[in-house]
Amino acid sequence: MDTLKTITVRDYRCFAGSQTARLAPLTLLVGDNSTGKTSLMAMLRAMLDIVNANRVPDFKKPPYDLGSFTEIVHRSGARRDPPDRFSAVLEVTSQTRATKAATVATHVDFADYLSAPVPIRRRISQGKYWVEQRFNESDGTHITYGSPRGAWADARDRHLPHFPGRYSNEIPTLDFPLWVLRRVLDAEQEEKSSIAERFRPLEGSPPISPEDVDQIRKNLAHARTKPRLGSAHAGIRGLFASAPVRSQPKRTYDPALGTPDPEGDYVPMYLAQLALREPQEWGALKSRIQEFGSQAGLFNEIEVKRFGEVESAPFQIRLRKAGKQRKGPMRNLVDWGYGVSQVLPLITELLRQDAPQLMLLQQPEVHLHPSAAAALGSLLSQTVGYSTRGRKTRQQIVLETHSDFIIDRVRMAVRDNSAGLRPEDVSILYFKRNEQAVQIHSISVDRLGNIDSAPAGYRKFFMEELRRSMSA
Question: Is 331 exposed, middle or buried (0-12, 13-18, 19+ CB in 10 A)?
């Protein structure tokens, strides 16, 4: 199981210098408009593209469009020339039943190539052991290794003439430099060659030893590329990133392949296919969706209504609201308030059996009444704590929100221990503007649900509004 631990950005968008944010199973991004919350989520997805898929990230891919390199690198009025690069460091903690927890950091520098940001350096480290790739357009990829004793360059790395973005969007895998360590150890043991001939000392380091090679290889075992948190390949639904404005409901749908999209337009197709082909799974998901609808006061029943017996028949998504004495009629989704159609894609992704391991959600409370937003806060707490199915899901959610009702429900879930949510499972990131830049403050929650270590200015607006409303 892999969990995002921290992300650090440097000279990126509105963040001057270096900024580090603590990530938790449930991370809440709060602050004024245009203070970098969406930019941080875009960088999370970009780093996961590099870590898991070894590909050059697209900073214009929906639901994020950050523009070209000059629009992404930080520009300050006090600096005449902007930096020629920006960077990020993503820390991921990996643990299996057979191994102890290990935190692997991926450091990436981005530079301008044809107006787009491309990686020019990637370093993977665990503690003081690391392997680094430097990508140069003129002479290819250079590989170096490091340990507490020193740093060494691979003397044969110039046979890798690859620059990300030039011929393809792929980044050379880390499997190769880690495989090299194993091969040279085997060759040394068989007395076929000398390790000292393969690696050149850097910066006054001593000659490399077999022990150095073996320790680097062992400590970087977790860094081998494989489908992990946020991966979207190899058939794993690892990552879901939502747009702040979601699907436009239709009166009638024609069956089609439901390709996932940030707006959630595919969700009606997914529900219809599930109801037709997997009735048992549909029944379980339907029950969970209805439970949330009832708790939020939005609806009590949902159904897929087909107009024909064949699979290609058109269909509708219909819902019903029940009163205390009698049930209301089933009505088309398009005839309900806009908040229902906006929240349906999100709760479907949260509650489906193959729910993504990582979700990046932008303003899920859009068009929701405060009571429904509060219910959504409870659902988010249950998702990362104990699910309604009685098992630990350990999904990770990064959520941008302007809703105090969501935040309060999360705090109450910690206080009441009602969803298996612990204080360390929650991180609140407060984005505070400071002249031309933004500072990220990591705020924690104690076991009573109280906000801890909040900086001056946090919730200042709400307190002032409350004071004004109570004044005579």
Answer: middle
Which positions ≥6 away from 74 have C-beta within 8 Å?
11, 12, 13, 14, 15, 16, 82, 83, 86, 437
**Which residues on neighbouring strands pair with residue 231, listed in sequence order?**
none
Here the tokens at position 15 are 């963040």
Q: Is the pTM of this model over 0.85?
A: yes
Q: How far apart are CA 222 and CA 101, in angstroms?
A: 10
Spatial separation of the C-alpha atoms in residues 267 and 270, rounded to whole Å: 5
For residue 141, what are the β-bridge partners? Answer: 135
Contact 439, 409 (CB under 8 A): no
CA-closest candidate to residue 238, choices 257, 221, 255, 260 = 260
Beta bridge partners of 28: 399, 428
Token pair 């199981």 in the structure block, residue: 1
The residue length of the chain stands at 472
Q: Which tokens is 278 given?
A: 């997997």
Contact 414, 380 (CB under 8 A): no
Per-residue pLDDT of 370-421, as tens digits, reads 999 999 999 999 988 854 344 444 689 999 999 999 999 999 999 998 888 9
d(CA 237, CA 316): 26
C-alpha 453: how far from chain center: 24
Q: Which two tokens stand for residue 118?
A: 């491309």
Give the type of residue at 224: R
Q: Are 151 and 129 in contact (CB under 8 A)?
A: no
The three-state (H, E, C) secondary structure of the chain, written as one string: CEEEEEEEEEEECCEEEEEEEECCCEEEEEECCCCCHHHHHHHHHHHHHHHHHCECCCCCCCCCCCCCHHHHECCCCCCCCCCCEEEEEEEEEEEECCEEEEEEEEEEEEEEECCEEEEEEEEEEECCEEEEEEEECCCEEEEEEEECCEEEEECCHHHCCCCCCCCCCECCCCHHHHHHHHHHHHHHHCCCCCHHHHEEEECCCCCCCHHHHHHHHHHCHHHCCCCCCCCCCCCCCCEEECCCCCCCCCCCECCCCCCCCCCCCCHHHHHHHHHHHCHHHHHHHHHHHHHHHHHHCCCCEEEEEECCCCCCCCEEEEEECECCCCECCCEEHHHCCHHHHHHHHHHHHHHCCCCCCEEEEECCCCCCCHHHHHHHHHHHHHHHCECCCCCECCCEEEEECCCHHHHHHHHHHHHHCCCCCCHHHEEEEEEEEECCEEEEEEEEECCCCCEECCCCCCCHHHHHHHHHHHCC
Report which residue type is found at 180. Answer: V
* Cis-peptide, bond into residue 63, ω within 30° of zero: yes
Q: What is the pLDDT of residues 283-304, one digit of tens each?
A: 999 999 999 999 999 999 999 9
Q: Which two tokens stand for residue 166?
A: 């030039």
